[in-house]
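thread: overnight batch results

M.L. [08:02]
morning all. the overnight job finished for the chain we discussed friday. pasting input first so we're all looking at the same thing
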Amino acid sequence: MPEVKNDSDVLYYNTSQVKVGEIERYIITFNLYEGDVIPEDISLESLWVEVKNTEGLSYRAAYLIGPFTLYCDVKTSNYHHSQKIISSLDEPKYEPNLQPQQTFKAELSLHEIKRQYVWIVDIVSQIIFTSTTQTGFEISIKRPLCLVGGEVVPLSADSFNVNRLNTLDIWNLPLQIYTKQEKKHLVILTHGLHSNTTSDMSYIMEQIYKTQVNFPNEQIIVKGFTKNVCQTEKGVKYLGTNLAKYIIDELYDPSVTKISFIGHSLGGLIQSFAIAYIAVIYPWFFDKVQPINFITLASPLLGIVTDNPKYINLLLSFGVIGKTGQDLKLERDNSTTEPKLANKCDIDNDPLLFKLPGDPLNQALQLFKRRTVYANAINDGLVPLYSSALLYLDYENVTDELRLATEYDDLDDSAEIESILSGEAMSSNYYDENLQALKKTFVSPITKILNIWNPQTYLSKNSSKLPRLSMFKSATSILIPPLPDREFILDPSTRSKVILHDRIYTEEYINEIDKEFENPYLNDTNMLLKAFTIARGKGGDFEQKLEERIARMWHKNLSWRKVVVALKPDAHNNILVRRRFVNAHGWLVIDHLIENHFMAEENNIELAASDETYKSSINNHIASTAKILDITSNIEPNKKYSWLTRKEAESIFDEGPTGMISTVSEMFDSFAKTSLSGEIDRNNNQNKIVPDNTLFGDGNSDMIL
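M.L. [08:03]
and the structure it wrote out:
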């Protein structure tokens, strides 16, 4: 980059900060020339954009209250991942983790003579654990000095412009672009553990909005609940209840006629609980709003029990990730000795994930036009295939398809998997680069805990060993997100097939298996079922049977489309494209999701028939299972579903260690603000300062509270 000699080189400069889940977008417009005539003295000198993380060097070690890093990318406005990039000058640039005091530089090339260039710069917060801390940065756009007759020629105001958008702008701008319609299709996105909707699911949001052109008679509105951020250790019930109330209190109005749900990881369970809660507390909702899509992405619908060694399950029971960890471990109430697996009305002490797939959720799910689960076959260090695919699956077909992929043509079974999952193999041999791809599916339990606390990182296949001391202190430098190959970004033809298996499964499929086999999966030797069968004979038989029972309940009277994918690490975050280029391996998964759920392939006759079926279904069972409840009454509402509606006593230990980081941080922040406000009030009273209301007009402000 040409050296900047003085301020005249700087075309634009701005400083800002981003908190957890926040994005700032800078749209740079540069007019190379004005009018229809190309000037003879036109300059094709490149512009340069610089983004600097302005936090102090000491913040690099402040991992648990941050991390104070930034994700940045720069691309042209017409970039699309389905198009091959010929010129390297058009290649998108990105920085996955911009550390404090580091600078990211990217060239804005003017290699073609065309009237206008437009680039888009995204700067995303990587903060995970607190909602009060922020990462500061500065952005500047520069150019070499343009000299004519020995004098600097400044750019005109019309030739250069930068439009800055914040997170709210990015999420709300599509609603202003498209023509408003009387009918609205509400799409709810729900994030997972230690994640957020506004930045981690923004890629999906933008892809969904692009399908608006396919629906001229309805308006798509994509929303996500933001107040569960840094609260995700408080349990599925707490999070799902919040989501349900958000949908009813803030999003619903009579113009909303359709609704879809997309949940990633824990978000799949959260949205399931929210649907059940709405069906009981607000039974009129599904009489007025037609459910369209229920979609999960790598969601632990059966929990995560049998693929964990005992000490990991013990940590989950003790609340290492709060109440959520206990839910995922299928923890039951301490007042009972064993779960009641029989169908009884009083099931309050059974694990939440055991109760969830039954009524009222089951009957509500029957109303959805489409129910789809996306599951990672390999390279997912958090959620095993059997849990995200609801156990019942043609594993032989998935394995055969996996072997056909060139990257996995040497796929074989692994004796190491059993020792890894039992906690016996903690040596660095597991991380040797020569291990087959499947072995990366079954990561070390320590790695799993690190992944739980840091969802955007994963051990590189080249990592020689796992850090044994000060692992959290070293996480920002050792655990880095694996990046896609340059060819993958530039050339669509180099991308391997990712959809291994795409089939609809019904309850009849389970019945047919039961006729042929007794306990078909408990003794299965397929390598993809190792995570489920590994506990056989080691005291985990009960958990296996419990997970199988839960899987059967998810299939009762329901058909499921199951899409199994093969993604490179980190598959758990690639599947939703958490960051546009770092998680680029998930592009084809989201393409599949959009093409099969948000394209207007049905004609009006089919839609009319579907609407009629929906109305019939709503009359048949919603009224019979979810009566209107008086939630203001002191009487326990609907005792059959009291486990769902009863308000639980909150405990600070529900949050887990990292959840408490956010709580304590917020307490100090609130205390500081209260103290400062009180000091200002005292000073104002002493000086008898009376505010001039004319300065504030009618009370309007540019600040959105």
